[in-house]
């Protein structure tokens, strides 16, 4: 992100990046804007783009191009959102006029549905993982189990796991710093508490990152685990336990779906997930046909 901010100050993409608080969001938007620039300006160098030529027709053409290439409507809409923000910066810098910006702003996002991504782990799979770690308790497995427990038993996002500090664990709760600088406190279940406490005892330090990298000699560093590192941990679990592939985010899906399956209040689940809207929580509901049949059977007629 800093690479782009060091460039020409009149670059509207730089101005847009300054409005973002998350480098993860910045990287996502940069990727989408770059693809559009390659399509329309024939370059991915933002300083070489003729932003004065940006208009609503160019964006509509891009939308048609991506649609014809079977790009997901959600991905196209993400690009549109980014381009609208860049167009706003163009108008602020007098690169385009208000009429041009208004026409871009009025572009409607694509509607559609997408197949549910990922999967939800079965209770038997979770028990298999728990059983494995009870019988394999070296330093690396102790860390991996604690990470798995917080992802599955507290529904944490990958980024939230990375940013956790030891001080965030207190009295059977975890303080999570989520999207939009919003914090939430999650009460931990027994198996999560046990897994995390075992890791804290093995870690043997009072402050710093909760999850750190471990070298080939099983020595724990003070370097915070990376996003890729979280993925490596999950893949190690899959290989060692011998279960179907899942992603870190599948554990978050499992957390939400399982709570809904046992009848947890939807608003409570929304807050535990750190969602600003209940509609977002509903996307994580993977209870399927069984729940729908049960609902029908509850009809009094």
Describe this structure in words.
The chain is mainly alpha-helical and 301 residues long. It has two domains: 2-105; 123-290, Orthogonal Bundle (hpI Integrase, Chain A). The protein is 57% helix and 7% strand. It is built from 15 helices and five strands. It has helices at 2-5, 12-18, 23-40, 56-68, 73-92, 98-105, 123-135, 139-153, 158-163, 190-203, 227-241, 248-261, 266-273, 278-283, 288-297; strands at residues 169-170, 173-177, 183-187, 212-214, 220-224. Strands 1-2-3 form a three-stranded antiparallel beta sheet. A two-stranded antiparallel sheet has the order 4-5. A hairpin with a 5-residue loop joins strand 2 and strand 3. It is globular, with a radius of gyration of 23 Å. Residues 1-8 have low confidence and may be disordered.
